[in-house]
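[job 4471] stage=fold_predict status=RUNNING
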Amino acid sequence: MASPPLPADVDLGKLSYEIFSLLESKFLFGGVGSVPGTPGRAVLGGGGGGGEGGRVRVVAIDGCGPGPGDALLAAAALARLEAALRARAGDPDARVADFFDAAAGTGAGGVLAAMLFLKGEDGRARYTAADALAFVAASLGKGGWGGGAGGGGRRSWWTALFRRGEKSPLRRVFGDATLRDTVAPLLVPCYDLATAAPFLFSRADAIESDSFDFRLRDVCAATCAVGAAAAAVRSLDGRTAIAAASGGVAAMGNPTAAAITHVLHNKQEFPLAAGVDDLLVVSIGSGSSAAPTAGWRTPIPQRSPSPAEMVRLTAEGVADMVDQAVAMAFGHTCGRNYVRIQAASPACSGKALSSLDAKKAVAVADGMLTQRNVEAELFRGRRLSEKSNREKLDAFAAELVKEHERRARSPGLANVVIKQAATPRLSSATTASSATATGRTVSTMPSPASQSSCRC
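[job 4471] inference complete, writing structure tokens
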């Protein structure tokens, strides 16, 4: 049925402006009442880094593409961030998970997020970012990589990680740990082919019901499933079954928006998070977003793109759109509350990376961090960032340490209350609370030698 015509005296331009202003003040820029039932910033008495309200710290990792370079860049960025945190905090054994309250990851980014937030026997994170980087670097060339820069190969380089049996690399990394066995809220999206809808693995849901608790190795398989090889995943009690495909298909290749939404509406664990001023968010990209140069012209295509290439291009476009929207929401914080890490151009092709040894591959990834990436501004085009990725990570580490020290000075002001399982279930990772653990964990990362013994 056609909509009734608007009165002639209605100024459509003014009406559109008023509607956008309402959305902007209510949802984008963290104004009072941005989330129903949440006190405004004036009531909280803080924010912007200097107040007592504090800020919830979030890390989001993109669904890295089919090439090893994307996952390597994300792992290298996390390792650089961890090194900066250790230096600024004066703690040589500090870990990424010690400075974040929530994590989200899609695809290979989901594997990295799950590794960094997996709970060890003493209640702290079991793996360091350096462990995760070594794991990715040692896996190069062992996953059937053959797609080239376009990602058109038959198998993703992650394929070898999901081999069945006791020798599966992911089984050695995660054991029988589940979503409950993480030190902080974890979000990992995938696409459920059975319902033709996105599905979000969530620690908060797992705490509430066994029907939403999944083994972490199955969660990683679900978010990384590619092509027609859907991953059949079931919850621990068998009541929830998913025919999972890659999270990138679910328009969550960049899970930053999903992570922010979760924090702002999860009032049990983040009771004082009212808007973006109450957040510290680092988004680690996977693709390259290069700026057009002088004389740049679109090459004439010699062939139609393959389905795999179309999926990759679509996922990168969606990730850029999410980044633009999130960056706009955080625009008034002048880069203090949100930072995006993304390679400006690939430092090495996928095939070349797969032929490098682990040490050289890490050096290549570290070189990507010296680049200045292209920042996309909603409705304003693109511009080259003033800082390199490494400089952004160092500056963001300073903000994280500042929040960490604020909490140490005011332990009674709990702006984050992580839920614990009511009936702890023992697994390969203990259910001891990370809040009471004081010891240090020795890394148990599988050695590259043990990984190389597995066959596809």
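[job 4471] summary: Strands lie at 56-64, 102-107, 186-192, 197-202, 231-234, 241-245, 279-288, 338-343, 374-377, 381-384.
[job 4471] exit 0
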